[in-house]
Design goal:
mainly alpha
């Protein structure tokens, strides 16, 4: 099996080059002639081959042949017996396939429940293993399949629970329930548990017939009603000499747990889920179950975590649960998830880790939303809500181990986004990775900043004719918001100093790239970064012992602020909001206009940028005007000032206006008589 797994890995990584190996894998599977035999004998190598083929199909690889599909379909038709581990893995892959496969799985489940797959001399544990695996990996089904399956599952419960309506509560009724428990076999209880789990899965997939829905709710409620008497019973009420008593009690408790989970599922699939009473019921059921599981730890906690993931995904998939308007159900899932992670961390860290990783991996599973006929791609609500939930959990729990488990799926998804990706998805991913990075955990912080920096610079270098202007503009606008989120959230002095240096370095690179790019002023690229720079410099002491490299970065920042006309104008005119997207015009003409308007007004850019410039000037001005490091780039700046240079015009009036503008930019602290330095800071238009 190890060799087949390695081959599957190679095919998935390089499908175009190695997909021709799929027919060979199909040959390792049991062939139709063997499956049609009266008593087919399937070897372990056959099972391994079927697992490999199903795994490849579940990855949605573009297979031109139907042989692989028929291998799985034929095997499903002939499936009668196997081992639990095989069922679990196999159905995990099948659950990712189409409705066609789901229909066959439902048919097999109904046959197993009715006993049609078992001969008199065959161990029924085989069917139970199959049903248990299906309850863990339930496929996509049609509504008719769901109704048919529920009808069969109802026969797994005692006949007195199949009538709609509720008995009058009394002590005698409850004692009768306890007494009748002794007549229930362990096998019957196990079937009831699996039946409740299967009903819960059906509720997640389709909308049930109203009468069937009332029936299953009635059964679940009767089970929960009897639970009170069961738990309150005394030792003398039971036959303590029964050697199977503990096993049967354990099985009954699992039935109660499955019934409670079904009731939880029914709450948010109910027509009345928007009502406060229904939401409160959901919260109380889920909260109570979580408290019991975390208190006991061990198997109860593992079972809860196994069921909690699909429950969370189902809540996130609800149409009225959106990122902008999360209801009580979403909030309760978030709070309970945090409680389980915090309380379960010390008791069963491995299970909690598996839960976190599984929830994060669901992002990758749902990331492929496919092409939609040339229209803008619509991102599923479940994807946006799960992304939001992971960020909320990471921020609330504040454990680096939790953030490190959530972060890889998020940062990989963001890295794969480009200008063609839906804006809502890109914005959501950027917002959550920025929030996690702002917690100050080294790994997530550094990966986020490196990726965002690279992404921002790459968009500046993209030629305007290679991407849609609107999409490119949105991509540029979303990244500065992430930079600002990190600047506001970082608390550690060391990381703030590191981030300050990185942001100033980015500004220098942005200014250089923008200035050298034909047809652009650079203000629309540098301006959006200024609020983040202002925030990260808000606690900066310019009178401290500052490294020369940081001084040079501040010098570069002010140079480009003056160059692009981003500082408030000299004349005290009102700051009006101006659209920041530029069009391709002559660069020299644009810079001349910016320089003059920097003196005369009105302000051409977003007013938040002007306010950010003022905040930056309060801390960095002494560094800029007193540093000898300005002389390092004398040759470069003289070229810019030279009338024969590419950008220069030799206009002395404009140069004078720029000198005055630069003086205003840094708070009026520059001595205009120091012309030998100031002239080196001019970008003559």
């Amino acid at each position: 099996m190890e060799a087949l797994n390695e081959l599957c890995d190679i095919i998935e990584q390089n499908p175009k080059q190695f997909l021709d190996k799929l027919p060979w894998i199909c040959q390792q599977c049991p062939q139709p002639k063997l499956l049609c035999a009266e008593s087919p004998r399937v070897s372990q190598s056959h099972l391994n081959g079927v697992l490999a083929v199903t795994r490849i199909l579940s990855r949605n690889l573009d297979t031109s042949q139907n042989d692989a599909k028929f291998v799985v379909l034929d095997f499903l038709q002939a499936l009668r017996s196997s081992i639990s581990a095989f069922y679990f893995s196999f159905l995990g892959y099948v659950s990712c396939l189409s409705l066609e496969f789901g229909t066959i799985v439902v048919e097999l489940v109904m046959m197993s429940c009715c006993g049609e797959t078992e001969s008199e001399d065959r161990d029924q544990s085989i069917s139970m293993a199959f049903l248990s695996a299906v309850s863990q990996h339930f496929p996509t089904i049609q509504q008719s399949d769901g109704d048919n399956l529920i009808t069969v599952l109802l026969h797994q419960f005692p006949a007195d629970e199949l009538s709609i309506g509720y008995s009058k509560g009394s002590k005698d009724v409850f004692l009768h329930k306890v007494a009748s428990f002794e007549d229930e076999s362990i096998e019957c209880l196990e079937k009831q548990e699996i039946a409740f789990k299967l009903v819960t899965n059906v509720l997640c997939k389709v909308k049930l017939d109203s009468q069937l829905y009332l029936l299953v709710r009635s059964i679940a409620k009767r089970q929960l009603q009897s639970m009170y008497a069961f738990l309150k019973s005394r030792r003398q009420d039971w036959n303590t000499q029964d050697p199977l008593l503990k096993t049967r009690v354990n099985a009954k408790l699992f039935v109660y747990q499955a019934a409670a989970q079904m009731e939880i599922e029914a709450c948010f699939t109910s027509l009345w889920r928007s009502m406060k009473a229904c939401k409160d019921l959901f919260i109380s059921l889920l909260s109570g179950t979580a408290k019991i599981a975390t208190a006991e730890a061990g198997q109860p906690l593992r079972l809860l975590l196994t069921r909690l993931k699909p429950l969370i995904l189902a809540v996130c998939a609800q149409p009225d649960t959106s990122v902008s308007s999360q209801g009580n159900m979403f909030e309760s899932v978030f709070k309970i998830s945090c409680e389980i992670i915090v309380s379960g961390w010390a008791k069963d860290q491995a299970s909690v880790n598996a839960f976190i990783v599984g929830l994060a991996s669901s992002i990758r599973e749902r990331y492929d939303y496919g092409e939609q006929d040339g229209r803008e791609k619509q991102v599923p609500d479940v994807l946006l809500n799960v992304i939001q939930l992971l960020a909320d959990i990471s921020v609330a729990v504040k454990k680096p181990e939790v953030a490190d488990k959530n972060f890889p799926s998020l940062i990989e998804s963001l890295d794969e986004c480009d200008v063609s990706s839906p804006h809502s998805l890109r914005l959501q991913l950027l917002e959550v990775v920025s929030r996690i990075a702002s917690l100050g955990f080294e790994k997530s912080y550094r990966q986020t900043v490196v990726l965002m920096r690279r992404s921002y610079l790459s968009q500046i270098s993209v030629e305007s004719n290679t991407s849609a202007p609107e999409s490119r503009s949105k991509h540029i606008e979303t990244l500065p918001a992430g930079f600002l989120t990190i600047a506001c959230g970082l608390m550690k002095t060391k990381l703030r100093a590191d981030y300050r240096h990185r942001l100033l370095s980015l500004c220098s690179d942005v200014g250089l790239a923008s200035e050298s790019k034909s047809g652009g002023s650079g203000a629309e690229f540098l301006g959006p970064l200024l609020p983040a720079v202002a925030e990260i410099c808000s606690d900066f002491d310019p009178n401290s012992n500052v490294e020369p490299s940081l001084i040079k970065l501040f010098r570069n920042l002010w140079f480009y602020i003056a160059l692009f006309g981003l500082a408030p104008p000299i004349l005290n005119t009102p700051l009006s909001e101006v659209k920041t997207t530029s069009k391709s015009v002559n660069s020299a003409g644009r810079i001349s206009t910016f320089s003059l308007r920097a003196v005369l007004g009105p302000y051409m850019w977003n007013t938040q940028w002007a306010l950010a410039v003022k905040r930056i000037s309060q801390g960095s001005t002494p560094l800029v005007v007193s540093s000898a490091k300005w002389l390092e780039d004398e040759f470069e700046l003289n070229l810019l000032h030279n009338s024969d240079s590419l950008r220069g015009t030799g206009n002395k009036k404009v140069a004078s206006a720029q000198r005055t503008a630069l003086s205003i930019v840094v708070g009026g602290r520059i001595d205009m008589s120091r012309n030998s330095i100031i002239q080196r800071l001019q970008m003559v238009a």
